[in-house]
Structures are given as C-alpha cells and as structure tokens.
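Good morning C.,

I know you're traveling, so I'll keep this short. The sequence:
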Amino acid sequence: MAGDLVLLSGATGHIGYRTLIEALSAGYHVRAQVRNEAGVQKVKAAPSVQPYLSRLSFALVSNIEADGAWDEAVKGTKYIIHLASPIPLSKGPFQEHELEEAFINPAVRGTLSLLNSALENAGPDLTRIVITTSLVSLIHWADSLAESGITYNEHSRIPRPTGPFHDIFEAYGASKAISFLEAEDFVRREQPNWDINFVGPTFTIGANELTTDADDILAGTNSTAFGSVLGKHSPGPAASISVHVNDVAKMHVRALDPAVAGGQFFLGVSNGSRTRWDDAEEIVRRNFPDAVAKGLFPFGGEQPTKILNVDNTLTQKALGIEFLGYEEQVKSVAEHYLKLKGFQA
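The tokens, ready to paste straight into the viewer:
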C-alpha cells in the first residue's frame, strides 16, 4: 500500500527507472538498488524524480549474484520489485560453450541470491516480491519466430531448457525460463511468508529518460521499433509483440497490490500482438511532419515482422491496464529523440 517501503532493483535500467517513478508517484517509499555511486547521481539528476526525493533512498549492490549481496538491502521492506539483470563480463562474440556461463548461470544466481536474502533477512513485514522476467520464459525463442499459429498466454509453459545453446538469443531466452522455474521451485521448497508475481514484458518501447544523448536512442529494445526510422537494417525478423515502457512500469506496481492474487504471471503485450515494426516510418511521418521535412529522420531501414499470437486478457483484467498501442510507443521514442536533437516542434 502507499507509504510502504519497496526495494526496487535495477533502477538505472529502461524499465527500472520508469517503474521507480511509477512506484513513487503511487505514494510508496522506494529504496532503489544501483551498482555504484554514479548510478545514484544519475537517478537523482533526472527531472521526473525531483518531486519524490524525500521518499527515495538507495542501496549499493555491485555484484547482484553474490551470496548475501542483498542482505542489507532487503531489511525492513514490505515489497520488492526485482528488475536487475546480471551484465555479461564479456560483450562477446561468444562460443557455444561460453553461453551458459555468460547468460544462464548469472541470471539464476542473481535471482536466488535475492530470494535467499529475502527469506533470511527481510523480516516479517515482507509480503510480496515482483520479479521481471519475459515472454520467453513461456516460449522457446525459436518458436517465437516460427509463425506456428499457436496462441500463447499467461498459462503457457515450456520444459526447463537444456543446452547446448547456439546463440545469444537462445541463451537469453533460456536464462529467463530457467530463472523463472528456479523462483517457482524456491517458493514451493521454502514456503516463505511472502509470495511472488512475475511480470513478462515483450519488446519494451518508449522514451528512456536516463538516455541523454541522441546517439544512444537505439539502446536496448527501442532499436527494434526505431532502428528503421534512422535507416538501420535489422539482421533478422522480430516477433509482432511490443509494449509501452509506461505500461510495463504500471504492471510492476499494480502487481504489488494485495488485492491482486500472488503466484501469477502477467504478460505485457499490446495491439493484440499484431505490431508491424516497419509501421514506425508511417507513424513518424504522420505525427512529426515538420521534423521529417527538416530531414531529422533518415528512414530507409528495415525491421521484418514475424506474427506471434499472444493473448494477455488475464493480465488486462487482473491489473486493469488498457495497453497503449504501437503508435504511442513509437511517438514516445520519437519525441524523446527530437528533444535530444534540440528540435522544437
């Protein structure tokens, strides 16, 4: 409830920062986990956090995988939102035999480290943890591009993935699936006095306020929507699943509500899972004609789409969210890009 203390990990991330603002605006006190002092200053300098600084504190956790790393951060919390993901020590390229240690093992260790600290050190007030995962916890990465006609929903499940893993996409998907299964197993085994809800976004699109250089606008999944607008050609297709970052933030905060049952998986996807990535050019041309006339958008790129059927009716009803469509997602990125370029509409 509003006024309670939430530990929020990954506060400098695209989803993490937006969820921080959503939680603060809902009235929570937030202890934001960052990896170093630079992260503290980055968050504190952002314009949208300024009205809430009196309810914001920080926890420095540099190695989120280490045993006991979260012991102090979890103390006294009522809720935890766990968005942080381990960062691979190498940027690659990776050999097949390196993928498990680069992606899967760190993700599992990071999840279990937090859960063990919560079990042993959070105290009796902790009632719920919300963990960020992904749609690919419920579907194999290859199946997301197969156009099989199968419809996936919050109850879809896959067996625990096993190697060898052949590329970073397959390893990333496996890391999400295995971490999700490990968290479910943890709750069954330990029977804590708190529960877990899982939030599985799809391609998350929207302005990232912590991006302050126009050259970085394509960082993360925004590249899938906006790369073609800036003339980039994708090396491969992407599934037709997108969601506005603001809606993903709402999902995390609403999943804390005691009126929402625990032990659930919520899926973030808009447009009835019919996003057409290359529609971004038309959206930008229609909404920003003056900037287009000035040549601020090169266009000419390409991001092919593969149709993936996803039904998140359960999520919409349980969390009361009407998801913003692809047009609003693209507009959010474009507006931020133009602001960083110094263009006055």
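Safe travels,
E.
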